[in-house]
Design goal:
heterodimer; A: two-stranded antiparallel sheet; 15 helices; 4 strands; B: 427 residues; alpha/beta; Rossmann fold; 7-stranded mixed sheet
């Protein structure tokens, strides 16, 4: 009744093949974009930007990146934290070496550098699969973190090994450094998210994405029908690492402002993003957003509810929060192993038939 | 679903907004995670001193102090969230984490909040000309490194020529801090320095101590925190390293670090910039007004421990700075700007400490516009495993300013250049 496709006729293949074929979906998407781009920047304050929206947007990019690799191409990776560190350190070196060039270009270049590193570490995927590949990418995680901690050139020989993002502007607005306003930081992240999500959506439903999915579903069959596993796997690693590198660059430069590799890009980060992908839904762009929202917003929400709302001691709240998040993860995986994206899809299907289900 | 979450979050945030009080001193604590065992004691000491002031004196200058607590779990992302959540109306932050401090240093100068990092954080914040909003009195890591080396010089009749000193450190911003100073000191005094990193959190140190057993350094210094300390002291005991030649920084000098090693830890030394034990008159007041009335943070289970005392000492210094600021501003409801002034003119004399009820508890702290770090004096404490207590074995010792001052100036200048700041003048 509220959600239906009756009367929504397509008269061309182009119309039929669009991202949101149902009118209501499309309008909803435009409405969310409009609110996100026009209303939110005026309503946002420091707390909302730094505690809620920036991490959500940045982790969404990382989750999309990992989803391309794990969800679409079927290559398990535990190296996400390490690849994010590559993005962060690349953008730091670029920012400090070439201060006159725009930060936007630096962030994209950092993504490119991460893509190259990702392809290099993706090479073993041509010979090994499954758990063994996961272990190989785990090695990448530890190696990269060790490298950035060990070689002082990466952190410009600072005494403590920390990297600090200097102030950089886009169109005259500071987006990094302490003087950046919450709306400027939010808008730069939003721009990257919209752009990259659009790229990912179109890549995954085109030829490249179909090759990835063919490899995921059965690599031998894919090879027989003419999919080159070398290019398919390496493009998956490259594109995925590009996204993750951009996320790492934004995480360091725009969100945190200062970072230390072991703390900010440790193995925990790899697991966090893998959880986002699994809870959100493997092989779904929407799922990446839903997973990021679930794991970023829920802890903040619970903390505010338990400490701010109920006045519990902070340590008790922190422990309960871990337990609730953990229990919810298990609950969701039992009830819907295909993640929040599948839940959303079921809801949509039910709504289409409502109020006359069959 | 997303919308619903957002709406819920909005409701929760509204509910979480702190009630406006007179003086707000947030406590960014960590009671969970790998460093929770230490962080919880520090947070208790910090809370209890302000509770005491509220209960006994009705606050400072008639203004009650509110200490909203926020759990960071020693995690920088949560630290940023806590800072944003509590900064409304707040005067001063004390996050007890070098990583979070690095995160907050640029932010506080824009938001105009005081950042007080006693004994941790960025060492060069001592330079008030560059770090206008950051204070790290009474001592910083480089002071600590220098005082430790001075103590060793004393032990060796003034010369460390040809000695081997190993530094076992937490491989993070915190642990790396002293390296530069120790390298300079090694050049000056002719000892060789071996750097031995331990990966966080530091539960696995077999290879490090194997290396120490093989190299046989004369002394081992340690920059550790949390579980790393306990493991290191246990490993040192296992390889029968002479404990009296093993010196930890002040964060590696609490009871929980040495107790697990039992008698093996006897003789272990650590630096400290505050007194230990409960033989101070203040504890009588604390007992009457806080412990016996059941208002102690977490029921007062850690009262008197080394880390608790340090948390309390941080609160003492902040309270004194607030008092000074009130005096200077002529009003009791001060702003962070006025508190900054109060810190810059802070003068905690030994007489004042006695008045507070903590005679000889800390070094004299006299800050100026250019000097945000005080004298940097520290002393050595030694663990008595049989009596299960720390004993102070030296007086307050001043660090080697000749080596440290140029290093501080150099690092502060590098920070100023990197972030495009100009030094303010302090004349």
């Amino acid at each position: 009744m509220f959600y239906r496709e009756a009367g929504d006729f397509k008269t061309s293949y182009r119309d039929d093949g669009q991202s949101f074929p149902i009118k209501l979906d499309r309008y909803g998407y435009y409405a969310i974009l409009a609110v996100a781009a026009v209303v939110v920047p005026f309503a946002i304050n420091d707390y909302w930007a730094n505690a809620v929206l920036l991490p959500f947007l940045i982790y969404a990019i990382a989750a999309i990146g990992l989803n391309i690799l794990v969800g679409y191409a079927g290559q398990v990776s535990l190296g996400t934290g390490g690849f994010m560190a590559v993005g962060a350190y690349a953008v730091y070196k670029l920012m400090t070496s070439f201060p006159e060039i725009s930060i936007v270009i630096h962030i994209l270049l950092a993504g490119g550098i991460t893509a190259l590193v990702g392809i290099a570490f993706g090479l073993p995927s041509l010979r090994i699969k499954g758990f063994y590949l996961a272990v190989a990418t785990l090695a990448a995680q530890f190696f990269l973190v060790w490298l950035f901690n060990k070689v002082p050139w990466f952190y410009n020989y600072s005494a403590s090994g920390q990297i600090n993002a200097p102030e950089r502007t886009v169109l005259g607005w500071a987006v990094t450094g302490p003087a950046a306003t919450p709306s400027a930081k939010y808008l730069i992240c939003l721009a990257f998210v919209v752009l990259l999500a659009w790229v990912a959506r179109n890549l995954t439903r085109g030829m490249v994405g179909r090759k990835w999915m063919a490899i995921r579903d059965m690599d031998i069959a894919a090879e027989i029908i003419g999919v080159n596993p070398l290019t398919a796997k390496l493009t998956a690693f490259g594109v995925s690492s590009f996204f993750i590198g951009v996320a790492g660059a934004l995480l360091f430069a725009v969100y945190l402002g200062a970072a230390e590799v072991t703390e900010a890009f440790g193995i925990n980060k790899s697991f966090l993003i893998l959880f986002m992908v699994i809870i959100g839904g493997l092989g779904s762009i929407f799922g990446s957003f839903a997973g990021a929202a679930f794991l970023v917003l829920l802890p903040v929400l619970l903390k505010n509810l338990l400490v701010g709302g109920l006045g519990w001691p902070t340590n008790l709240a922190a422990h309960i929060e871990l337990m609730i998040v953990g229990a919810l993860i298990i609950f969701f995986l039992i009830v819907e192993p295909h993640g929040l994206a599948r839940l959303w899809q079921l809801v949509k299907e039910k709504l289409r038939l409502w109020p006359f289900p069959h | 679903m997303k919308l619903k979450l957002a709406a819920l979050a909005a409701a929760a945030v509204m509910a979480a907004a702190p009630a406006m009080a007179d003086l707000i001193v947030p406590n960014l604590s960590y009671r969970t995670g790998p460093y929770g065992a230490n962080g919880t004691q520090y947070a208790d000491g910090f809370n209890d001193y302000f509770t005491l002031l509220n209960e006994r004196d009705g606050g400072i200058g008639g203004e009650k102090i509110q200490v909203p607590e926020c759990e960071t779990a020693y995690n920088t992302e949560k630290g940023v969230e806590c800072y944003e959540a509590t900064k409304e109306g707040a005067l001063v932050f004390n996050p007890l984490s070098t990583g979070i401090t690095y995160q907050l240093i640029p932010k506080v100068s824009v938001d105009k909040k005081v950042l007080y990092t006693p004994g941790y954080g960025r060492t060069s914040a001592k330079d008030g000309k560059v770090f206008e909003w950051v204070f790290n009195a009474p001592a910083n890591y480089w002071d600590g490194a220098s005082v430790a080396i001075k103590y060793l010089l004393d032990q060796n009749g003034g010369s460390l020529e040809g000695k081997k000193i190993a530094l076992v450190y937490h491989n993070s911003a915190y642990g790396k801090e002293p390296i530069r100073t120790l390298q300079e000191l090694a050049k000056k005094h002719g000892f060789t320095l071996t750097e031995i990193p331990v990966e966080a959190p530091g539960q696995e140190q077999k290879s490090q101590w194997l290396q120490i057993r093989r190299d046989k350094p004369d002394y081992v210094l340690m920059w550790g925190w949390g579980v790393m300390n306990q493991v290191a002291i246990q490993e040192a005991a296992n390889i029968r390293f002479p404990m009296e030649n093993f010196i930890g920084i002040w964060w590696a000098g609490s009871e929980i670090d040495v107790l697990p090693a039992g008698a093996g830890a006897n003789g272990y030394k650590a630096l400290t910039f505050n007194g230990v034990g409960m033989d101070y008159p203040l504890y009588a007041d604390l007992k009457t007004h806080v412990l016996d009335t059941g208002k102690a943070s977490q029921g007062g289970q850690h009262v008197g421990s080394a880390v608790y005392s340090r948390g309390m000492y941080a609160a003492v210094v902040i309270a004194e700075a607030i008092r000074k600021a009130q005096e200077l501003a002529g009003t009791s409801a001060i702003t962070p700007e006025q508190l900054r002034e109060g810190f810059e003119q802070l003068d905690i004399t030994p007489e004042r400490l006695t008045e507070i009820g903590l005679p000889d508890f800390g070094p004299e702290i006299k800050l100026t516009c250019a000097n945000h770090g005080g004298s940097g004096m520290a002393r050595i404490q030694q663990w008595d495993a049989a009596a299960k207590k720390w004993n102070l074995i030296t007086e307050f010792t001043a660090p080697d300013a000749e080596v440290l001052d140029p290093l501080v100036a150099e690092d502060a200048a590098a920070y100023a250049k990197e972030s495009g700041l100009t030094e303010r003048s302090c004349d």
